[in-house]
User: Which sequence fits this backbone?
C-alpha cells in the first residue's frame, strides 16, 4: 500500500533521494488523499527532487501558508464574536496546534475551526455566533435534532461571508458513546495563550486525539490524526513523568484503552519512542494498522470489507444497538449509503 | 486502476485512470496529437479517476463517479456513454480546484502576433464557440475554458484542451472541419448535446508559448449588436468572479489582476449571430493591436 510508503517517508524523508517517478507519484497521490501533502512538503523542504515534484510541493506550501493564515483569522473572528460573553473558549485540533505553535501544526491542513465551551453556555455561544454572521449548514430536521440531543457538538455553523465552518463542542465524544470524558476538567485546566485564547493541556490534546481516532468514527483519514499524536508525543514525551501523567489523565477521562492503542499504533506506524510498559497487549492492533494504511497509489482506499467492518464498529461505538438500528434505518430511507 | 492514460495540456500534466476501457480509448483518439506523458519519467500534476459509483456498478447499470486529487463529494454520477465528458470534467476540476501556478481565469483565449485576446463570460455567452471559430480563422487557439495568467510576467499561458461545443454551437463551429478532429456526439448530457473538437495542429504544437494579453472581451449572445468600453473596476470584479483560484493565490492573485486591468483594455460586446461577432472582434482588434 502506498500509505505505508507515506508513513516511511514522513519518518525518514531522506528515502526520497532513491525514489523513481512512479514512487513519487504514489507518494504524492496517497499523501494528498490522506491530507498529509502539506506535511510531506514541509518534511522534504530543501531535499533534492525532480522539478515536477518540486513544483507540486511548492503549490502545496502556498496552500499551507494560506490555510494557516485563514485559520488564525477565523480564531480571531470567533474570539471577537464571543468576547462579550466572558465564557471560556478552548481551541481544539488543527487550530489549537497552529495557535500554540506546536510541531503538529507544521504543514498541516486546517479545515474547520473547532472550539470547546462549557455545556451550560452553549445557547449563549450559539446566539453570539449567529449574531456575528454564522449560519446553520444542515437543513435536515432529523440531523439537526440528532445533533442537539446526542452529539458532542452543535450542528456545524458556516460563516455567511467567509464560507468557513465552526464546530462548537461541549465535550469530545458523542453523549451516546460509553466513555464519558471530563470536559469540565479539560476546560478548567486549559493552557491560556495570548488574547484570551486557550488550548487543551498536552495530555488532554492527546486524549482528545485518541478519542477521535480510536473511540469515534470509522478511521477514514485517520493517518493524519495519528501523525498529530506522533508529533505531540515526540515533542513532549521525553521524561517518564509525562507518561505517568498521560496515563492518569486518560484513566480520568475513561479513555485509557483508546489512548494506549493510539500510542501503540503511533509506535508501530511512525516508530514513536514509547516506554516499554505502554506496548503490551493490542492483539487487534494489526487490524487497526491495516485500516489506517489502505490508501493506494491511485489515492483510493483498498480493502472494502475491512473498511466496512470499521464503519459498523464506528456506529456501535457511538450508540447502543437498538438506537443504531433506528438511526441507520432513518438514514437509509433518506438515501444515504455507507460506501461509495 | 485498470486503464490509464497520461496527458499534457499546456503547462499541466494529468494521469487519468478508469475502471472502463471506453473513456480511455475515446480520450486517446482525440488527444493523439498531444505530447504523451511517460509515467516512468514524469510525475503528473494531477490524478483523475473515473470510478464506479459502487463497486458492482462497474458491470451493472454502469455509472461513473468523477474522483481524483480534488473532487466534489456531492457530484452527480455520469452515464458510461458520457465517459469522455466525465474525463474532461475531471481534468477541469483538478485545474479549477488545484492549480496554483497561475491565476486561473474561466475564459477562452486566442492569440495573434504574440498578443492574446481573452474572452470571458457566463455559460452561454458563446466564448467557447467564438474561440473555436477564431482558431480556424488565422488565430492560434490558446484554450476554450481556462486562460492562465502568470503573476510574475503578466503573460497569458495556453490550456488548449479539447473544445467543448454544445447544442446549436456544434454545427456552427465544426463546419468544414475534418472528421478526425471531431469527437462523438454525446446526447442527453447535463448540458444537452456535446461534441468535442480537437484544436488544430498549430494550437497543439505551440501550446507552451505564452502571449501578452492585449484585449479583454465580455461577450453576450442573443442581443442586438452593441459594444461599450468596460472600466477597470468592473473588469477587475468580472475577472475575480471568473477566477477559481483568485482567493487561494492571495496577494499574488490580486497583483496579477490589478496589473491586467491597468494594461489591458476591456470591451463588452453584445451580438446576435456568429458573422456579426467575428466581424466585430476583428474590428475591435484592429483598434488595439
Assistant:
Amino acid at each position: 500500500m502506498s500509505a505505508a510508503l507515506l508513513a516511511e517517508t514522513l519518518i525518514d524523508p531522506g528515502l526520497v533521494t532513491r525514489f523513481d517517478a512512479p514512487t513519487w507519484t504514489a507518494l504524492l497521490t496517497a499523501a494528498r488523499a490522506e491530507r498529509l501533502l502539506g506535511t510531506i512538503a514541509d518534511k522534504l523542504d530543501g531535499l533534492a527532487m525532480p522539478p515536477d515534484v518540486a513544483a507540486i510541493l511548492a503549490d502545496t506550501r502556498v496552500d499551507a501558508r494560506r490555510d494557516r493564515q485563514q485559520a488564525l483569522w477565523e480564531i480571531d473572528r470567533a474570539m471577537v464574536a464571543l468576547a462579550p460573553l466572558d465564557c471560556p473558549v478552548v481551541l481544539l485540533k488543527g487550530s489549537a496546534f497552529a495557535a500554540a505553535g506546536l510541531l503538529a501544526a507544521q504543514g498541516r491542513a486546517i479545515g474547520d475551526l473547532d472550539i470547546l465551551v462549557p455545556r451550560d453556555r452553549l445557547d449563549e455561544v450559539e446566539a453570539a455566533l449567529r449574531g456575528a454572521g454564522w449560519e446553520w449548514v444542515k437543513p435536515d430536521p432529523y440531523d439537526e435534532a440528532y445533533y442537539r440531543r446526542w452529539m458532542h457538538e452543535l450542528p456545524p455553523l458556516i460563516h455567511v461571508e467567509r464560507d468557513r465552518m465552526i464546530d462548537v463542542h461541549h465535550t469530545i465524544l458523542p453523549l451516546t458513546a460509553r466513555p464519558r470524558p471530563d470536559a469540565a476538567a479539560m476546560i478548567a485546566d486549559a493552557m491560556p495563550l495570548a488574547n484570551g485564547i486557550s488550548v487543551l493541556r498536552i495530555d488532554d490534546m492527546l486524549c482528545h486525539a485518541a478519542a477521535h481516532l480510536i473511540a469515534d468514527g470509522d478511521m477514514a483519514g485517520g493517518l493524519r490524526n495519528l501523525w498529530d499524536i506522533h508529533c505531540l508525543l515526540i515533542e513532549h514525551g521525553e521524561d517518564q513523568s509525562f507518561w505517568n501523567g498521560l496515563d492518569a489523565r486518560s484513566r480520568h477521562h475513561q479513555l485509557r484503552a483508546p489512548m494506549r492503542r493510539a500510542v501503540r499504533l503511533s509506535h508501530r506506524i511512525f516508530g514513536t519512542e514509547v516506554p516499554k510498559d505502554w506496548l503490551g497487549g493490542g492483539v487487534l492492533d494489526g487490524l487497526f494498522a491495516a485500516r489506517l494504511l489502505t490508501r493506494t497509489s491511485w489515492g483510493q482506499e483498498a480493502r472494502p470489507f475491512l473498511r466496512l467492518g470499521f464503519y459498523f464498529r464506528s456506529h456501535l461505538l457511538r450508540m447502543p444497538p437498538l438506537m443504531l438500528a433506528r438511526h441507520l434505518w432513518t438514514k437509509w430511507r433518506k438515501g444515504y449509503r455507507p460506501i461509495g | 486502476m485498470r486503464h490509464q492514460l497520461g496527458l499534457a495540456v499546456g503547462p499541466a500534466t494529468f494521469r487519468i485512470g478508469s475502471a472502463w476501457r471506453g473513456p480511455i480509448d475515446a480520450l486517446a483518439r482525440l488527444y493523439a496529437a498531444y505530447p504523451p506523458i511517460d509515467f516512468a519519467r514524469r510525475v503528473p500534476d494531477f490524478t483523475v479517476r473515473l470510478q464506479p459509483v459502487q463497486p458492482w456498478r462497474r458491470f451493472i447499470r454502469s455509472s461513473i463517479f468523477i474522483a481524483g486529487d480534488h473532487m466534489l463529494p456531492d457530484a452527480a454520477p455520469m452515464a458510461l456513454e458520457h465517459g469522455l465528458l466525465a474525463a474532461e470534467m475531471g481534468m477541469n476540476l483538478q485545474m479549477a480546484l488545484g492549480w496554483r501556478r497561475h491565476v486561473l481565469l474561466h475564459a477562452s483565449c486566442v492569440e495573434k502576433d504574440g498578443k492574446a485576446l481573452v474572452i470571458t463570460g457566463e455559460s452561454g455567452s458563446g466564448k467557447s464557440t467564438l474561440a473555436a471559430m477564431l482558431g480556424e480563422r488565422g488565430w492560434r487557439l490558446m484554450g476554450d475554458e481556462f486562460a492562465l495568467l502568470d503573476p510574475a510576467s503578466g503573460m497569458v499561458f495556453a490550456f488548449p484542451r479539447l473544445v467543448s461545443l454544445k447544442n446549436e454551437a456544434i454545427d456552427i463551429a465544426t463546419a468544414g472541419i475534418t472528421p478526425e478532429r471531431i469527437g462523438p456526439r454525446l446526447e442527453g448530457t447535463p448540458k444537452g448535446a456535446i461534441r468535442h473538437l480537437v484544436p488544430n495542429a498549430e494550437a497543439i504544437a505551440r501550446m507552451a508559448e505564452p502571449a501578452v494579453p492585449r484585449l479583454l472581451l465580455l461577450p453576450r449572445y442573443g442581443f442586438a449588436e452593441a459594444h461599450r468600453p468596460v472600466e477597470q473596476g468592473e473588469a477587475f470584479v468580472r475577472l475575480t468572479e471568473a477566477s477559481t483560484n483568485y482567493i487561494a493565490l492571495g496577494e499574488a492573485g490580486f497583483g496579477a489582476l490589478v496589473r491586467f486591468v491597468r494594461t489591458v483594455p476591456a470591451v463588452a460586446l453584445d451580438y446576435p449571430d456568429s458573422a456579426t461577432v467575428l466581424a466585430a472582434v476583428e474590428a475591435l482588434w484592429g483598434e488595439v493591436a
Chain B has a mean pLDDT of 95. Chain B touches chain A at residues 1, 13, 15, 17, 39-45, 47, 49, 51, 53-55, 65, 67-69, 98-101, 248-250 (CB under 8 Å).
